[in-house]
Structure formats: C-alpha cells, structure tokens
Amino acid sequence: MHVLVTGVAGFIGYHLAQRLLAEGVQVYGIDNLNEYYDVNLKKARLGQLTPHPRFTFEFLDLSDRQAVAELFEAQQFDYVVNLAAQAGVRYSLQNPLAYVDSNVTGFVNLLEGCRHSAVKHLVFASSSSVYGVNPKTPFSTTDNVDHPISLYAASKKANELMAHTYSHLFQLPTTGLRFFTVYGEWGRPDMAYFKFVKAIESGQAIDVYNYGDMQRDFTYIDDVIEGVVRVMHKPPLAGQDALTKAAYKLYNIGNNKPVALKRFIEVVEQALGKEAQKNFLPMQPGDVPVTYADVDDLMQDVGFRPDTAIEVGIERFVRWYRDYYASNP
Q1: 36, 152, 220, 321: which is the annotated catalytic residue?
Q2: Which of 158, 197, 208, 313 has its CA 20 to 30 A from that of 249?
Q3: pTM for this structure?
Q4: Series of mean pLDDT values for 10-residue runs along the chain (329 residues)
Q5: Catalytic annotation on 131?
C-alpha cells in the first residue's frame, strides 16, 4: 500500500504517518514547511519520520500546479490523505491570500492529481469551523453550513464542495473529515491549549476569550488518527450522496463531549501543578462560543467514536511538552 500524506510535517500529518508506518504502509509525505508557526518543531517531527525505510519526504507546495502534477505522474498512490492547509481562524483575518493559495488553489491541484491517477480514496481535512454560529447542537453533517464566519471556515467549506464535484463528475471517492479542536503531543503552538501550557509554565498570564464563556469539543490526537485510518480504509461507494449519487461522504471527528473553557483551564493547571493568571477578554472575530460533534454516523460506519478524557490527554501533552522543551530550549 502506498499512501500520500500532505502536510506530513504538521501535527496531524506527523501522527498519521507514524501510525501508517507502524502498520507497514509505504508513506510518501509532502510539506512546504511554511512559517505560520515554529519551523523547528515541524523539522523535529520530520526527524522522527525520516529514519523509517518506508518513508519518503519531498519539499513541495500544493499551490505549485506543475510540481503536484509531476508528483502524481512519478508516483502511483493507492490513497491520499490531505492534511496540508493554511490553518488558523484569526490569522485568516490578517493574511487571507495564504488561505486561497493553500486551501483553494492547492486543493484543486490535488484533486486534479487524484483524478488523473486512479486514486482509490481521497480523505481530506475539513473543520468544525464550517458550522459557524450554528445554534443547533450537537453539530451534524446534515446541518446547513452556509454561514461561515471566517475565511478559514469558508475555505474548508469550499474544499467540501470541490471534492463533491470531483466525486460526481469523475467518480473519485472522497471523504471529508470535520475535525473538532484536536490536541495532544507534538501539537500546534498556535492552539489555545499549547499557549496555556507555555504561559502558565513560564509564569505568564493567559488570554481567556469571551470571558471564559465558551465550550469546545476537545479531541485527542490518537482518537483523530484512529478515525482517519478507519475512514481511509472504507472509501464511500457510488450512491453515498443522496442527491447526486456520488461516492462522497462527510464525518465529524470530535469527542462528542464539549468541555467548558474554564474547566479545561483547570485541567491544564492540575497537570502543570500551577495556577494560571488570567486575562479575561471579549470574543474575537471569527470565534464561535460552542463546538459539539455528533459522531453517530462515524460509529455506525466504521465502529469508532473518540472518547479520550481531557484529563488523560492533557497530562500526556504536558509530559511531552516538558520533555521536548527540556531538550530543545
């Protein structure tokens, strides 16, 4: 089995590659190592992967149409998992064109590559952000998502629409995964939990938005990877889409148990053995007050639902954080 993992130096991409390599899969990873957050962390993740004899890495930007076309001409991939994207809600207010280049242009280039090389299944990362300020909870993949409140969310909704089109027109099996606040070891420094740990550990105050009146469906990285792998091995069949009969499917991957932000901070404090100084601030543009995943269809189709408690996941993250930064000050 030959699997292309895009964004392989990223948080989820790295963990997926590790899992696939452990299962004997041949992994071809690409990444452009952009500077949205610490490139040294991305290189450290790659450093964990490159010793594997079944791992190949190529520095490649998905927005480079010719390079992507040449990749698919040179390689024959059974499965493609797209985890490359310009991430971050707030950053999309500052640098919108980065999201168009990576999440829109780059995704079309990838779809074209899959279309012309008989890929068995394209799995791609979407996001819970597509739900916007959806008042209905838990969020279901059958809910209307026509009101995104950030360009990041809009770009992810665009991915879903483009993937459906390619499934319909070219019989390319595609599955979109709406991730809900993924956290864990080797995580992203721009995420709130990472910032909380870093600030509290160094005695600095943390910013608590919407005065702490928020809930998030925090999802531990191992649960996310389990979901991705199970979905990857189960391509949708023609007829999955009720209207167009395309081989297209969407799933939420969330813990199905939203946690109040104040409670989450308490868990971080307990894991660190330190109390946080808190700056209570208003809601930021692009943020939503609640995320809450309905994962019944994930359980029904692949027999799995995320369930790692935040107390367990945060303790593991704190242990990794202290070990990593002790070695990489």
Answers
A1: 152
A2: 313
A3: 0.96
A4: 97 98 98 94 97 98 97 98 88 86 96 96 96 92 93 94 97 97 97 96 94 94 98 94 91 95 96 95 88 95 94 98 92
A5: no
